[in-house]
Every structure is written in structure tokens, then in C-alpha cells.
Amino acid sequence: MFKGVDYFNLNDLFSEEEQMIQTTVRQFVDKSYLPIVSQYHRLGKFPTEIIPELGKLGALGVTIPEEYGGPGLSNFIYGVTMQELERGDSGLRSFASVQGSLVMYPIYTYGSERQKKYWLPKLAAGEKIGCFGLTEPDYGSDPGGMLTKAEKVENGWLLNGSKMWITNGSIADVAVIWAKTERGVSGFIVEKDRPGFTAKAVEGKFSLRASDTAELSFQDCLIPDENILPLAKGLRAPLSCLNEARYGIAWGVVGSAMACYEEALNYAKTRIQFDKPIAAFQITQHKLVEMLTEITKAQMMNFHLGRMKDKGKAKHYHVSMAKRNNVRVALEIARSARSLLAANGIIDEYQVIRHMLNLESVITYEGTHEIHTLIIGENITGFNAFK
Ligand code: TGC
Ligand code: FAD
Fold first, then answer.
1. Are 117 and 100 contained in the same domain?
2. Which residues span the domain enclosing 122?
């Protein structure tokens, strides 16, 4: 039975299958992931040994149909899964987001039958790891300006350029790379051992430390014709993948917020100052009430968005609103929880500082907070304020 932060008993509205999967993912995070995350956070590495378990859980490519090796579950279950993974760490959810929404989704949606049959079962099982390269050193919020190019040559495509801040980049077996071509922005499946392809881990991160982030370079890297995603034409193809990942993030960050709230509440009940638990002070209660209220509002938004998405009614601007709101409130909750733990809030014996630092990346990637403001702003006013 679900024992988490659920003030309005939304969980009662979950189907039996949704509840069962939530509990299974939650137990995996509690038993297999939380005991090791601090150690990997210190090391600055992703715990690759848990990848097969993620595959067995069905957390990689949740909505990919069974005929391609996926579990073929709903978008709602995808969301719930991301929430429970990010309750562990944003790096864990990032791994699953990238593998499912940014590698499997484009292959499933824009790939040939041969590409789907070859890659999807291996990615679903976690036998192969994928990454997604859209961002470049000089083009982040404005991916349409990308400099990476693929030139048509007799026996394929010659890829030149670089991609920056790529999650899973240095541990990936395969990359989905977006490049300008004579037919507009196109997507390519690039195996890691192709001559001319190098990946280098980004050093010195203070955020998402238990996640791999890399810079990818391509120098006259020859990609065979059969590796282009045949149905991906133009920038709308990679942007459509972002909708999937942003939806998962909207759910995921609520998991981070729940972890911070629970830790803050437990701490406040046991930490004694002025002969009382700090939970007995009005200012502490105010902080906790604000946290729980924002979590409850975000859970409701996700619940409805998930049902809308399963009916095919969630538009990209709805996803932007949920991503924008939920990451902002999760970050505020993590900061507030950190303040409640005070000095203990800055060490990794507790979770709040790790979540807080992670969320600084999450509010930046998959469209910054400002970019989502402008996406929603354009939708409601009709004016494009990007350019
Ligand atoms: P714009 O001219 O507006 O659009 C170009 C074409 O794309 C269509 N479109 C979309 N299609 C599907 N979904 C969306 N969300 C779409 N947004 C736009 C649009 O209709 C148009 O189609 P067509 O057929 O008319 O050509 O493009 P723009 O160049 O003005 O840029 C728009 C903008 C700023 C919203 C977009 O580029 C943007 O979202 N920028 C943010 C970049 C971003 O989010 N990057 C994420 C990189 S991946 C990542 O961060 C992974 S982290 C993963 C992890 O670790 O969890
Ligand atoms: P910039 O675009 O340079 O933005 C700088 C500032 O200007 C921001 O505050 C931004 O909001 C603001 N700004 C930009 N344009 C406007 C405007 N029109 N109006 C108002 N303000 C504006 N990318 C991938 O392709 N694949 C990945 O797997 C991936 N993983 C990542 C993992 C991590 C840990 C991080 C930190 C990033 C990752 N990214 C990935 C990149 C991420 O998507 C970009 O960092 C993000 O899109 C922002 O780009 P930028 O950092 O270049 O910032």
C-alpha cells in the first residue's frame, strides 16, 4: 500500500495497476538505490550496475509497445514511474528520461522498422545505453541555430560538430544526434565506436553528480544511410521528443519535493531547540504547510495532465506549464527543507542538499524556466517573445 506524501488521497483514484507499479518502483528505490546514491554522488558517477534492474522494472521506455520489447504502459504510469525514481535522485530519473523519451521515443516515432526492431528491445532491457544530442556549446535555448552538420556523401552522411551537456553521453553505446542537412534538421543513430566520434565527461559539476554528463565531438564521422531516422524532418522532430521528457520531469520533480518534505517533517519532529521540537514553532509549521500545499497542487496538475495525455489531449504548452511550475516549486521546497535542517541540511547524511543542487539543473534543462514562460506566453497572447 502506498505510504507517501498524498494529502488529498489522490492515490485512491489510481487504478490497481497504477498503484502496484508505483509501489514496485518505490520499493526498488528504497532497497536498491537509496543505500548507494550518496556514495555515487560523492564519486560523481552514475551507478551503472542498476541499469538491468531498471530494465526489469519496465522503467526504460514505459510506453513503448511490447512488440518492441517495452512494457506498453500508459503515459500516466510513465509519470508515476518518473516520480518514484526522482524521489531517489534527479540523476536516476534523468537516466530513465533520456533512455525512454529521448532515445527510444525518437527511434520508435521516426525510425525504420529495422531500427526499431534492432534497438528498442536492447534499450528497454538496459542492455544498451542511449543519449540524445541537441544542445551545443553555443546553442542551448535556441537549438535551431545548431552548427552540427551532416553532409550527404556517396556511402552515407559525414557528421561534423559538437554537442554539449549530454546526459549519459560518456556511458552511452548509442547517441541520437540532431544535425543540419540538405533536408533540414535530421536525426542520426550514431554508435559509440564510429571513427570520428568522441565523448568526454564534464568535470566539476555541483549538480546532478550521480548522473553522467558529457561533451560529444564528431569529426568527419561517417554515418551509413541506414542510420538516419527516416521520418524525422525539421526541428519539430527533436522538439516533439522534448515534450515527452518534459512531461516525465513534471512528475519526477514532485518525487524530489516529496523526499525533501518527508525528511524535513521527520527532522522537525525530533530536533529539539529551546526545549521543544522545532516542529512546535509557528515558523516551522508555516514552512511545512507551504511545502505540502505546493506538493498537493503539483500532484493534482500531474494527475490531470497524465489523464489528458493518455486521451491525446495534452498539448506542448500544457506540458510546459507543468514542467515550469513543478520544477520551480520543487526547488523552493528543497531550499526550504534545507533551511529547516540548518547545518545538517548541508551534508549528504541527509538528502535535501542533493535534491536542492540537482534541481538547479532540472530548472535549466529541457527548456529553462524562462523558455517555458515564453512558450506559455506565446500560447495565451499569440505573440512570440523569443526573438
Ligand atoms: P519554432 O519555429 O517555434 O518551432 C520549430 C518547429 O517546431 C514546432 N514546435 C514543436 N513541435 C513539437 N513540440 C514542441 N514543443 C514544439 N515547439 C515548436 C513548430 O511548430 C515548428 O514546426 P514547423 O513544422 O512549423 O517547422 O522554433 P524556435 O527555433 O523559435 O524555438 C522554439 C523554442 C525556443 C520553444 C524551442 O527551441 C525550445 O524549446 N528551446 C529550449 C531547448 C530545450 O529545451 N532543449 C533541451 C535539450 S535536451 C535536454 O535538455 C535533456 S536533459 C534530459 C535529462 O537529463 O533528463
Ligand atoms: P542559454 O540558452 O545560453 O540561456 C542562458 C540564459 O538566457 C537562461 O537563463 C535562459 O533562460 C535565458 N534565455 C535564453 N533565451 C532567452 C529568451 N529568448 N528570452 C529570455 N531569456 C532567454 N541537452 C541535450 O541536448 N541533451 C541532454 O541530454 C542534456 N542534458 C543536460 C544535463 C544537464 C545536467 C544540464 C545542465 C543540461 C543538459 N542539456 C542537455 C542542455 C540543456 O538543455 C541546456 O542547458 C538548456 O536548454 C539551456 O541552454 P544553455 O545552458 O545553453 O543556456
1. yes
2. 10-129
Residues with a catalytic annotation lie at 366
State the cell numbers at 277.
521540537
Could you tell me the CATH number of the domain that includes residue 188? 2.40.110.10
Kindly state if the Cβ of 240 falls inside 6 Å of ligand 1.
yes
Query: Would the CB of 373 count as within 6 Å of ligand 2?
Result: no
Given the CA of residue 133, which atom of ligand 2 is nearest to it?
Answer: 25
Q: Could you read off the pLDDT tens digit of each residue along the chain, which spans 387 residues?
A: 556 799 999 999 999 999 999 999 999 999 999 999 999 999 999 999 999 999 999 999 999 999 999 999 999 999 999 999 999 999 999 999 999 999 999 999 999 999 999 999 999 999 999 999 999 999 999 999 999 999 999 989 999 999 999 999 999 999 999 999 999 999 999 999 999 999 999 999 999 999 999 999 999 999 999 999 999 999 999 999 999 999 999 999 999 999 999 999 999 999 999 999 999 999 999 999 999 999 999 999 999 999 999 999 999 999 999 999 999 999 999 999 999 999 999 999 999 999 999 999 999 999 999 999 999 999 999 999 999
Q: How far, in Å, is the centroid of ligand 1 from the Cα of 278? A: 46
Question: Is 207 found in the same domain as 272?
Answer: no
pTM strictly above 0.85: yes
* CA-closest candidate to residue 88, choices 163, 173, 25, 7: 25
d(CA 367, ligand 2 centre) in Å? 6
Number of domains in the chain: 3
